[in-house]
Amino acid sequence: MDTFSKYLLTALIGIVALGQFVQVITRYVLQVPVMGLEETMLYPTLWLYILGAVNASRENTHIRANVLEIFIHSERGHTILAIVGEIISLIVGLWLLSWAWDYTRYAWRVWKESPTLYIPTFYSDIALVIGLALMMVYTVWHLFGHIRTLSRGEAQ
């Protein structure tokens, strides 16, 4: 899974960078804008953003403001704080996932298309529900890891 996500994110970054490069060259150098390029770039850009968040969740490298860790000096306390943080993340994430699921059902029912090229926007709309579902899986994974650490007594 690590290898697949690494190559997928790299490919998405390459596609977005190439699209922006083509946009700059055609618009500002050749003075001929490519119609619909911004529209097509929406899809890999949105997926890159969401899958980047999933990757941060998988690696457990989200940006955090762990102010309470300053006042907690034991490893056990840090583990308990991590468990509480994961539980809060899980509650908020599942709540957002329910909203994303409602939006996905709406997007399926309405089946909107992009204004210029008529590409179904559903393929970008589902990125949110898929991304949040994967983030919740990784949150549960990390929560169980912290609970195992605490129950084994490794955090003293």
Outline the secondary-structure elements.
Elements: H1 2-29, H2 37-59, H3 68-71, H4 75-110, H5 122-152
Helix pairs in contact: 1-2, 2-5, 4-5
3D structure, described in words:
- With 156 residues, this protein is mainly alpha-helical.
- It has one domain.
- Helices cover 78% and strands 0% of the residues.
- It has five helices and no strands.
- The protein has helices at 2-29, 37-59, 68-71, 75-110, 122-152.
- Helix 2 runs parallel beside helix 5 (122-152) and helix 4 runs antiparallel to helix 5.
- It is elongated, with a radius of gyration of 20 Å.
- The chain starts with a helix and ends with a helix.
Offer a few descriptive terms.
156 residues; mainly alpha; 5 helices; elongated
Question: How many strands, what sense, and barrel or not for the largest sheet?
Answer: none
> Structural class, from secondary structure content?
mainly alpha
Low-confidence spans: none
What is the first-to-last residue Cα distance? 32 Å
What amount of the residues lies in strands? under 5%
Find the count of extended strands (DSSP E, 2+ residues): 0
Shape assignment: elongated
> In angstroms, what is the radius of gyration?
20 Å
Mean pLDDT comes to: 93
| Number of structural domains | 1
Portion in helices: over 70%
